[in-house]
Amino acid sequence: MTRLIGALYLAPIDQTKTHRILDIGTGTGVWAISIADDFPDATILGNDLSANFLSAAPPNVKNLTPGGYAEFQDFNLLYYSEDGTLTLNHALREWITALCGAAESLGRDPNPGSKLKAWVREAGFKGSCTRGTGFPLVMNGLEGLSMRLYCGVLGWREEVRGLLTSVRRDLADTGVHALFICEFFVPLQAGMNKDR
To answer: What InterPro entries does this protein's entry cite (predicted)?
Structure first.
């Protein structure tokens, strides 16, 4: 994500006043390590489902110091193209639509990005800086994304490999300009410009 947005974060953070940073969904820890370099006086707490990280966040992780910031970033996985080059007839569109449907059948929302603003406002935050950005797709990790949901939920077997071959073909086609949206949401302090 950092490479895609060109920064570690978007919130207008004062480094001299920042003492604690929480990274939820830490993954490998690369972001937490990078932000620690930028904020040497801050304590960075990384949290992930991986066995290498804490199994539960401390009870105070939802509390922000007055004047603090929370920045939320998440994806909307329903792929699209701004120029109409990705159509309903493409294997890529068939694949992601079925994948999202399988996730929804398990009670998982594959498209939380567009809901961030409402969720954070419901939690009592005021004002916002929002940005949705389209990012190009990559071929890495198709099997990892697909096999559990296609085989375990949808009941597919070997036919999923054939679909993935077609998906790779669509992704390699320079005439198909498929994107996905990542939503960025920063609740703002009182007195700052709203809804940019």
So the answer is: Methyltransf_25, SAM-dependent_MTases_sf
Same domain, 38 and 93: no
Query: Is 3 contained in some domain?
Result: no
Same domain, 33 and 97: no
- Are 76 and 138 in a shared domain? yes
Domain with 25, as residue range(s), is: 15-63
What are residue 109's phi and psi, to 5 degrees? Answer: -95, 110
The DSSP code sequence of the chain is -HHHHTSS--S---GGG--EEEEES-TTSHHHHHHHHH-TTSEEEEE-SSTTSBSS--TTTTPPPTT----EEEEEEEEE-TTS-S-TTSHHHHHHHHHHHHHHHTT--S--GGGHHHHHHHTT----EEEEEEEE---TTHHHHHHIIIIIIS---THHHHHHHHHHHHHH-TT---EEEEEEEE---TTSPP--
Q: Report which of residues 160 and 24 the model is more confident about.
A: 160
The stretch 156-171 carries a mean pLDDT of 94
Query: pLDDT of 93-103, one tens digit each?
Result: 999 999 999 99
Tell me the average pLDDT across 55-82.
63
- The model's confidence at residue 14, banded by pLDDT at 50, 70 and 90, is confident
